[in-house]
Amino acid sequence: MRARSKNSQRESQQGTQDVATREQLLIAAGELMAERGVSDVSLSDIAIKSGLNSALVKYYFGNKAGLMIALLRKVLGPAMLQLHHLSGMKLPPEEKLRIHISGMVMIYFQYPYINRLMHQLLSDEPDTFGSLIAQEFSAPVAAVQKHILDEGFAAGTFRKIDPLLFYFHIVGACDQLFFGRYQLEHVFGIKAINNQLKSQFIDHLYSVVLDGISATSKEP
Amino acid sequence: MRARSKNSQRESQQGTQDVATREQLLIAAGELMAERGVSDVSLSDIAIKSGLNSALVKYYFGNKAGLMIALLRKVLGPAMLQLHHLSGMKLPPEEKLRIHISGMVMIYFQYPYINRLMHQLLSDEPDTFGSLIAQEFSAPVAAVQKHILDEGFAAGTFRKIDPLLFYFHIVGACDQLFFGRYQLEHVFGIKAINNQLKSQFIDHLYSVVLDGISATSKEP
């Protein structure tokens, strides 16, 4: 590192500083969205929460939509990587299905604002974000599911299942416990989703779906 | 009717006129929401579309939220009544399950804006609408599902299933094909949901869920 010029040292320090500032803004945005919902968070709220100037949000992300996309990438990035690895793992297809369903529910549990964030972006600017979100986040999920279904069918474990119908079934089901939190409170009297409920939901979805697509189940 | 006073005749005519005007406004609101999404529809849009004065929206519904609740009641009313009858019908539990899943998907197919409408209301005024929507629309669904699950368990057809987990599984799955229409377009290249896709989705959900909760399926 001693061979580095002072300029490149300064650039590198600046780069590290940039990453830290971006991170600080994203953490503040995520915390605010978890507290009060996606649509109630303004750029100046994020500035106040992070202790940084709101001009920095514009400098690093352009606008609120830019920050929201960066937040999605930050929180979903590790899960997308795990999902990518899941396809190639040497595991029986039913075990991959369990890991997949469990991973989806865990992400919604950890970041309950994700779905609202996506739908806010899609509703604000469908032309810009529709294809971006689908390609970056939805298409990889659909591809891995299709891979698992194909493997299960080839192994004689699963019956033939349409990947499109399966995709909407699984994504909708995994998400609804978190998205429909008003129903949870007002129909079932449960204010917050704890670890036990989350685990029960994973077990329920996995067992119903696995038995439902099993090759030994009755054909429709 | 001849015995009626002129006053009560006038009141009755006024009542009929009120119903017709309300209906005209609700139809215009529903058509606009189906065309361009819930959040992009203003009171003056509704006035223009219906050919009526926007002051009438305020007169009949108070505000946009009032009109949205009235629209929900109008489009979901008949389905809630059918759902209520379903519990008491002399049919095997698996047939009731098929009618229920099919009915839910048909409603989302016919009124794809319903879910966004509910979530807009919940997000705008959670304290006012959270309990109203849950009690009027979600609780009856949960109650009928519990009834069907209980009947199926008593008959030895279904295994023991937690009604709360089942509720979120079914509602989320039925809704996602319609709510996630950007994924449908950008991941699967399908611009609109036709009758065939709707029927395939119903068949898929019903067969997977029925086999998944069947008493003969493997326990988790």
UniProtKB/TrEMBL annotation, chains A, B:
<keyword id="KW-0238">DNA-binding</keyword>
<dbReference type="InterPro" id="IPR050109">
    <property type="entry name" value="HTH-type_TetR-like_transc_reg"/>
</dbReference>
<protein>
    <submittedName>
        <fullName>TetR family transcriptional regulator</fullName>
    </submittedName>
</protein>
<dbReference type="InterPro" id="IPR001647">
    <property type="entry name" value="HTH_TetR"/>
</dbReference>
<dbReference type="InterPro" id="IPR036271">
    <property type="entry name" value="Tet_transcr_reg_TetR-rel_C_sf"/>
</dbReference>
<dbReference type="InterPro" id="IPR009057">
    <property type="entry name" value="Homeodomain-like_sf"/>
</dbReference>
<keyword id="KW-0805">Transcription regulation</keyword>
<dbReference type="InterPro" id="IPR011075">
    <property type="entry name" value="TetR_C"/>
</dbReference>
<dbReference type="Pfam" id="PF14514">
    <property type="entry name" value="TetR_C_9"/>
</dbReference>
<dbReference type="Pfam" id="PF00440">
    <property type="entry name" value="TetR_N"/>
</dbReference>
<keyword id="KW-0804">Transcription</keyword>
<feature type="domain" description="HTH tetR-type">
    <location>
        <begin position="19"/>
        <end position="79"/>
    </location>
</feature>
<feature type="DNA-binding region" description="H-T-H motif">
    <location>
        <begin position="42"/>
        <end position="61"/>
    </location>
</feature>
